[in-house]
Amino acid sequence: MQISGNELTIADVQRVVYENETVSLKTDQLKKVKQSRKFVEEVLSTEQTMYGINTGFGHLANVTIDQEDLEELQLNLIHSHACGVGEPFSEEISRAMVLLRANALMKGNSGVRPVIIERLVDLLNHQIHPVIPQQGSLGASGDLAPLAHLALVLMGEGEVYYKGTRLPAIQALLEENLKPLTLKAKEGLALINGTQAITAAGCIAYLGAEQLMQQAIKIAAMTVEGLEGIRDAFDELIHHARGYPEQIEVAKQIRELLKDSQLTTAQGEKRVQDAYSLRCIPQVFGASWQTLNYVKEKLTIEINAATDNPLIFAEEGKILSGGNFHGQPVAIAMDLLKIGVAEMANMSERRVERLVNPQLNDLPAFLSAKPGLESGAMILQYTAASLVSENKTLAHPASVDSIPSSANQEDHVSMGTIGARHAYQIVRNTSKVLAIELICAMQAVEYRGVERMASETKAFYEQSRKIVPSITKDRIFSNDIEKLSNYLM
């Protein structure tokens, strides 16, 4: 796959991150990169003052740096900003960060030498993934701390994941015959002054959420069968009457999944109306789908954006300082993603309760083979409730918070990286809640009669049963939840 800085898609990110697709640079676009670098060097020769190129950073922007100290300025920048803490991002997110940083630099507005971008691509193609601590970014002035840890690797410093091992970056570079780079004027700033930590974590969270949405619809359809739900609630007349495309689509998918089911019931056959957690699946899941569409739109823009400062416009002869590094557009999108995915889990947990609570159905209490002697799925619901409650805490919007930094020069920040990290955690939690619902739904349809299931849900049941067996007696369910959660993602 070739990158140009302008055409990357979320699907491209998925292929590079999860399928290790080889990345190369679009030759025509490299001309703009070279032109941009040439312009920086020309302006440097005039000793014109340019932020971050021959000045200090942040509150120190008014300090002019001598020409002979420009390389040291960039080295000091990376060293001083590499102060991330906490557990590292996953290798998937680290890999996405490298891809997105390379793509942003390819736009030709950052003033770096082509070798910087080429080395980022080398990391991808040799599967050398920087170890990047998760905590420490304010999501404005760019993801400074996380991206500084990425930049260290280009210099032969820091740590990486390589061939299943965490080791010093220099070892991996030397094994792949990659020479550490010395950063020239502007290059350190160009590497760290961007939104790639927010956006990379956001892309991985989005991809997981997108996958879970499709799985959640299938699981919910199976639960409808397990509870002999009323199919009339999914009639297209109802959903076209409201008009939301996503709601209409969810209802359509459920109708298609259940079209030949003998376990669903008609309105008034067993009850007049189902509880909201069954009847309102299209309305709630449709709303969550709306948030996914919004998030995808914003991420698609951001992964092709120039987000460092200053920006180089060689053709116009301008070097302009602005604020494209401010993560607010993605920060708000991440907060919406958190809410949308958390709601999927909220509704799923309520369906789990309806599946296990003997006061709400005619199934064996807690789906147990021997109620009383065995607890069955009782504590599965506890775990789902715990995860849902944790999601509610994580879903608090990060983007409404701001703490000034750099002696109040940077007086409003997005906190978007916190939002993206929490979105990813909510996605992981939700996969476990959905796994619990699937375990309970499969047990319920077995009591009803698997042979009476719809052909689509039955095929899904049979595939899922290869991963988690029936509950014939109490066992340690933790492993089942984890295995099924990984399968759903």
From TrEMBL:
Enzymatic class: lyase
**Which BP terms from GO are recorded?**
L-histidine catabolic process to glutamate and formamide; L-histidine catabolic process to glutamate and formate
Q: Give me the reactions it catalyses.
A: L-histidine = trans-urocanate + NH4(+)
UniProt modified residues of type 2,3-didehydroalanine (Ser): S141
Q: Which InterPro entries match?
A: Aromatic_Lyase, Fumarase/histidase_N, HutH, L-Aspartase-like, Phe/His_NH3-lyase_AS
**PANTHER family found in the cross-reference section:** HISTIDINE AMMONIA-LYASE (PTHR10362)
The protein's name in its UniProt record: Histidine ammonia-lyase
